[in-house]
Amino acid sequence: MKCNYCEWRCELENGKYGVCRMYYEADGAIQERFPNKWCTYSIMRIESVPFYHAYPGSRSMAIGTAGCNMECRYCVNSFIAREDPAKVQEKMFEFAPEELVKMAVKRGCHNIVFNVNEPAVSLPSLLEVSRVAKRAGLPMGCLTNAYTTEYGTELLAKIFSFVNISLKGLSSEFCREYLGVTESRPILQNIEQLAKSVHVEITTPVIQGGNDGEIDEMAKFLAGVDKNIPWHVFRLLPEYKMKEVEYPNIEHINASLDESRRLLPYVYFHNFVGSDWVNTSCPKCGAIVIKRFSLGCGGDKLESYNCQGNACPDCGYIIHIHGKRMAWNSKEGAV
Ligand code: SF4
To answer: Ligand 1 center to residue 12 CA distance, Å?
Structure first.
């Protein structure tokens, strides 16, 4: 029986696992190996996930599971995503959807974000969590590589109302060499598809000499999908099989973003402390409408939100924002 969650379409039978090692076949259906097991349930600022244009300032409960359907050579979470899920799950927490959502509410979270590994490898559990979260008034978001089938993508859109898609590279050479998949076509199609139904932001980790030559082409593609898509260009700090590779040069990458900034009004460049490129300017009058501070390594913070509703206070232009600005609180709450 073929798994229809992602583009690998693995044949699962006779106890065989697929590429992600998170599903198996039993009783004529695809089953999750470790349902309702979570590697974390920590509190994060939504800007750190990163989401810059969804529920600004909100407090998110970050969750993850184990396993992944890609083999990125630079993976920063390889100890969870690339390790044998059977081993990882021994150290994971088991919570039914009701318990997980209850904890998020108790801890004062405004939403739940799946951001450690790939959600496609845990879709049935996430679907259940989303049903309970919806009843509790908590929207859900995720980071995904979007290497999903049409069915997998439909499920992502059903579970998550805001999604950050990792557009890692375009060429087949890059996909094969760095990601362990053969092409970017399904990912591009899914970006188009998801942008029609949910809030989408994009993240591109840049590898100098790897995908930096594709930046202009990616910007053209994104502008063709929706020029309001926020784009996070990340200075990649490689781990896993690329630990020894030098960090990309900030000035070099920033210079290669000139054309992208002409095409897209919301281009951000971060993942290093004190980045100057994390604020949102009004695309019409240029006023800085949202200020943030970059703590590096994906840790970012909202400093000021000057929009009125989601309009520029100077010229009234509507800034592309999903959901309301939320007030961060320090409530810890008993778990
Ligand atoms: S989610 Fe993808 S990698 Fe995992 S078993 Fe299904 S088709 Fe294979």
So the answer is: 9
